[in-house]
Each structure stands twice: as C-alpha cells, then as structure tokens.
What we know:
By secondary structure, chain A is mainly β.
Amino acid sequence: GAVVSQHPSRVICKSGTSVKIECRSLDFQATTMFWYRQFPKQSLMLMATSNEGSKATYEQGVEKDKFLINHASLTLSTLTVTSAHPEDSSFYICSARGLPGQRNTEAFFGQGTRLTVV
Amino acid sequence: GESVGLHLPTLSVQEGDNSIINCAYSNSASDYFIWYKQESGKGPQFIIDIRSNMDKRQGQRVTVLLNKTVKHLSLQIAATQPGDSAVYFCAEILSGRLYFGRGTQLTVWP
C-alpha cells in the first residue's frame, strides 16, 4: 500500500504555544487530505478535508482559526494547533487520498501524532 | 456529518473461528465504503473497500458485504487469528469526505 508519513509522532507543548503537524504522501500524489482527532477508545472524528491548492473544508464545530490547515502541494499538508490548551490534547491522524479513477483512491493513513498540552 | 455507526462495540471470538463485524450507515448517497483496522497507538490500516455498485468483495481471509436496501455493511474474517485483535472501523466516502463509524473491538482468544 501507499505510504503516508506523519511527523512528529509525539509532541508535548506548553499551554498557549502553537504546534505544527506534517503529513506527507511519499509515493503518490494526494489530491485530498483528511485530518482527524481521536480520543481514547473512541472513533476518528473528521476535523477537515483539504484539497491541494484550495482552502480546507471544516466540519461543523471545528474552529478553523484554531486548527489551521495548509495543503500547498500534492504531497504535503500541515495542521497547526494554535494557542494550544490542555483540552486540545489528543491523537491527531492525517489521511491522504489520490484522485478517483487513479491508483491509490483509497485513503491511507499516517501513524498519528500524540499531542499533550501541559 | 458522520452517519456511519456500528452495531456492536465489542466482539470476542476463539482462534480459528470466523468473525463478522457489522456496520450500519444512514446516507444512501454514500458511494464508497472502506474497512479499517486500528491497533493501539497507530493509524488505521486499510483492509478492504467496496463501491456502492457492488454487493460483495473478497480479499485474503476477508469479505465485505454491502446491502444497500437496508444500508448495512459487514466484514467477515475467516479463520480469525490472534493478530486480528484490534479495533475495526467502517468508513464511508460522502461528498468527498471520509467519515468513520464507532468502531468494534475484536478480541481473539487462543
């Protein structure tokens, strides 16, 4: 399967600071990237969907000014958690998908980033 | 928003038995469904997918069945092994967005 690399895998930051998480598709062009948040023993909650070169589409209830998403190229998307607070502590996962009709139309996932805000 | 759900939160089976994990979805406009396996602390791993114009698809030891009439999806795992223990999610593509169901914890006993 295709490879999606997410970095960092773990990060601890102080309350009030910002944290950037990177998601890269290593062997295919990801026209769409999804960002999720997951709490322990719960499902993945879709935060936003981004298409290369376009503004991200945020799900209802997700603050776009707090969770900044950039999808500037076909292989890289970033999620920046701004002014992080302890309640932002969670497991963040990205997913990348190619164009329908092309190889890699299924969505492949990164390994996730465990964010802890202290 | 999310419209995919799972009937059972946990499933325990004995090694060698077959496992069936069920999923219900609510939006008939969904055109693509995927089953994922997630191990603790890791990202979801693709298992198998099915498009809405199909009703069955088979992979290695896994079969996905889609019943559009009742909006039901199932994942069958043959000869379940201890390494199959994980949380299984069904997911759907709806309007270009990938939504996940609640998840089923599969535990395989030796």
